[in-house]
Write a structure and sequence with these properties.
CATH architecture of the largest domain: Alpha-Beta Barrel
Keywords: Cell wall biogenesis/degradation, Glycoprotein, Glycosidase, Hydrolase, Membrane, Transmembrane, Transmembrane helix
Protein name: glucan 1,3-beta-glucosidase
Largest sheet: 6 strands, parallel
Structural class: alpha/beta
CATH superfamily of the largest domain: Glycosidases
GO cellular component, one term: cell surface
Distance between the termini: 111 Å
Order of helices and strands: HHEEEHHEEEEEHHHHEHEHEHHEEH
Strand content: 5-15%
Number of strands: 13
Shape: globular
Strand order of the largest sheet: 8-9-10-11-12-13
EC number: 3.2.1.58
Organism: Candolleomyces aberdarensis
Radius of gyration: 46 Å
Number of helices: 13
CATH class of the largest domain: Alpha Beta
Mean pLDDT: 75
C-alpha cells in the first residue's frame, strides 16, 4: 500500500473534486493549501478505517487507486484518501497553524460516537485512568505503612519511654533500681557513690563507685588510687568449693573438664545447658550493686578460653559464657566498678589446678602439645585485647591478667619469661603505647612466688606483677588484712 499526500498526488477525478471544494473553501482548507509541505504544525493524525460497500469502477484494473470521497462532503481541515481495491478509507487529519478560535478537532463528533475504533479507544483511556488511580491508591497505602513502621517505633522508644517513669537515668544512696531482669531493689551506698544507666547512651561512663575514687570517665591513677576489689571466682571457671551445686549432682566431677563430660550425657536434666543456667544466675545485677555499695572499686573476673572457642575433643561449653561476660562488664559500668579481666584457664592448663580447667595436667609450654597450646593462648590474648581496647570498654576494663598462677617449676622460668615478653609485644602492638591506650598488662609470678620476676620488664609500658597470698585455715582477721596491705604497699 502506497500513501501520498493528497495535496500533491491527485488523479483526474481528484482534481475535479478539489475544484468543487474550492468553490466552498473554508479558512482552514485555504490555509492548508497555502502552506508548503511538510506542514509547519501537526497537532494530530487520526486514522480511521472503514470498509466501503462500493465496488471498484468497471474497467479500472489498478490495484491501488487514489480518489476523493464523493459520498461524504469534506470537512474543514480534513483531506480524504481512499486507497486499495477494497475502498478502505483512511482519514488523515492535518492541522496547520490555525487561528486561536479554531474548533477542537479532538472533540468527539456524532460519527465518532458510532465508530467502534473510537469507542474502543475511549474505553482504553478510561481503563488506563482507572489503573492510574489504582496505582496511586496502592502507592499511598504503601507510603503510609512505611512511614508508620519508621515513626511508630521511634515514638515508642523515645517519646513514650521518656515520659514513662519506669526507669531513672541515675541514682545515689536509697534510689530505686530496676534491674535488667525486671526485678527492683534499693541501691544502698553510704560512701557517696552513684549509678548511671542511660538507654540513650549505653556506654556512658559517668558512674562512680564512691566519693574517693574517680568515676569511670576519669583515668585511674595506679600510683595514688588504692584498689579495693573482689574476685568473682566460680562464675565462668567452675570450682567445686566455690560453685558446689553442680559438682554435688555429679560426684565424679573434680574440675570443669570432668563436669562438662558428666553433664553433657545427662540430657534429662538439660545437658550442658545446666552450665549456662549457672552463668545466668550465679551472679546477678544486685550483687554488683552491693559490691559498689560495700566501698569496693574493682572486680577481678576470671574466664576460660572456651568463652572464645574450643577444639575437637575439648568438652567445655564453648562461646556460651561470652554474652554473660559482657553483661558483667556492663553492670560494672553501671555501678562505677572497674574490671581486671583474667585469662584464668588456657589450653592444656598452665597449672593443673581445678581453676585451670583441668587438674593433674600441665600441657602449656610443656609436653608434646605445649608449644601448640601456647600459640593458641597467644591468639586468645590477642582477641581479648582487641575487644577490651575498644573505646566502649577501655575505661571499664583497664587491666588484663594474661595468665593465672602458671607453674613455673614445671614450665620453666625462661620459657615463661619469654612468653610474657611475647604477649606484651602482642598487646602493645594492638593498643599502642601510653596512657589510655589499652589495659595494664598483668603477669603472674605463679604459686611458687618465684623472686625471679621481681623487677622483670622494668621500663615497659604499664606492666604489673600479680601475687597471690595464701590465707591460713583460720580465715581472715583484721591484723592479716593490715599485714597484707602493708606488704602490697612495699611492692
Amino acid at each position: 500500500m502506497i500513501l501520498r499526500r493528497a495535496t500533491h498526488t491527485r488523479s483526474s477525478k481528484n482534481r475535479t473534486t478539489e475544484n468543487h471544494h474550492k468553490s466552498s473553501k473554508s479558512p482552514a482548507t485555504a490555509t492548508d493549501r497555502d502552506l508548503p509541505p511538510p506542514y509547519q504544525s501537526l497537532k494530530s493524525i487520526r486514522l480511521q478505517a472503514s470498509t466501503s460497500s462500493n465496488r471498484p469502477e468497471d474497467g479500472d484494473s489498478s490495484n491501488e487507486r487514489l480518489t476523493s470521497s464523493q459520498s461524504e462532503p469534506p470537512q474543514e481541515g480534513y483531506h480524504y484518501l481512499r486507497v486499495g481495491k477494497h475502498q478502505r478509507t483512511i482519514s488523515i487529519v492535518l492541522s496547520p497553524l490555525e487561528p486561536a478560535n479554531e474548533p477542537d478537532l479532538d472533540a468527539p463528533t456524532r460519527e465518532d460516537e458510532n465508530n467502534p475504533d473510537f469507542i474502543i479507544s475511549n474505553e482504553k483511556k478510561h481503563r488506563f485512568g482507572r489503573s492510574n488511580r489504582r496505582y496511586l491508591i496502592i502507592g499511598a497505602i504503601a507510603f503510609v505503612v512505611v512511614a508508620l513502621s519508621i515513626i511508630l517505633p521511634v515514638y515508642l522508644l523515645i517519646v513514650v519511654r521518656r515520659r514513662s517513669p519506669v526507669e531513672a537515668t541515675w541514682g545515689g544512696n536509697g534510689s530505686r533500681v530496676i534491674a535488667e531482669d525486671g526485678s527492683e531493689f534499693t541501691y544502698l551506698n553510704p560512701f557517696g557513690g552513684y549509678w548511671v544507666h542511660d538507654l540513650d547512651s549505653p556506654y556512658n561512663n559517668d558512674a562512680q563507685a564512691n566519693s574517693w575514687t574517680p568515676p569511670l570517665n576519669t583515668s585511674w591513677n595506679f600510683t595514688s588510687n588504692r584498689i579495693h576489689g573482689v574476685n568473682l571466682a566460680g562464675l565462668f571457671v567452675l570450682e567445686p568449693f566455690i560453685s558446689p551445686s553442680l559438682f554435688q549432682r555429679y560426684p565424679q566431677a573434680i574440675d570443669e573438664w570432668s563436669l562438662s563430660v558428666a553433664v553433657s550425657t545427662d540430657l534429662a536434666n538439660g545437658g550442658l545447658g545446666q552450665i549456662e543456667e549457672h552463668y545466668k544466675t550465679f551472679i546477678k545485677e544486685k550483687d554488683i550493686a552491693e559490691i559498689a555499695g560495700a566501698g569496693l572499686t574493682w572486680v577481678r573476673l576470671p574466664i576460660g578460653f572456651w568463652a572464645i572457642e574450643t577444639f575437637p575433643g575439648e568438652p567445655f561449653l564453648q562461646k556460651a559464657s561470652w554474652n554473660y561476660i559482657v553483661r558483667i562488664f556492663q553492670w560494672c559500668r553501671k555501678y562505677g566498678l572497674r574490671v581486671n579481666l583474667v585469662l584464668n584457664a588456657v589450653p592444656g592448663s598452665q597449672n593443673g589446678f581445678n581453676h585451670g580447667g583441668k587438674t593433674e595436667s600441665v600441657n602449656f609450654l610443656n609436653g608434646v602439645m605445649g608449644m601448640a597450646n601456647a600459640q593458641r593462648t597467644m591468639y586468645y590474648i590477642r582477641v581479648l585485647t582487641e575487644f577490651i581496647s575498644q573505646p566502649e570498654w577501655v575505661n571499664v576494663v583497664p587491666m588484663f591478667s594474661i595468665l593465672n598462677q602458671p607453674r613455673s617449676g614445671l614450665i620453666g622460668i625462661d620459657q615463661l619469661r619469654s612468653f610474657y615478653v611475647e604477649a606484651y609485644r602482642t598487646i602493645r602492638g594492638i593498643t599502642g603505647f601510653g596512657e589510655g591506650k589499652g589495659p595494664f598488662v598483668v603477669i603472674d609470678n605463679g604459686p611458687e612466688d618465684s623472686p625471679v620476676f621481681n623487677g622483670f620488664m622494668n621500663g615497659a609500658d604499664r606492666v604489673a606483677i600479680e601475687k597471690h597470698f595464701s590465707l591460713p585455715p583460720t580465715g581472715v582477721t583484721p591484723e592479716l588484712v593490715c599485714a597484707l596491705s602493708a606488704s602490697m604497699d612495699e611492692r
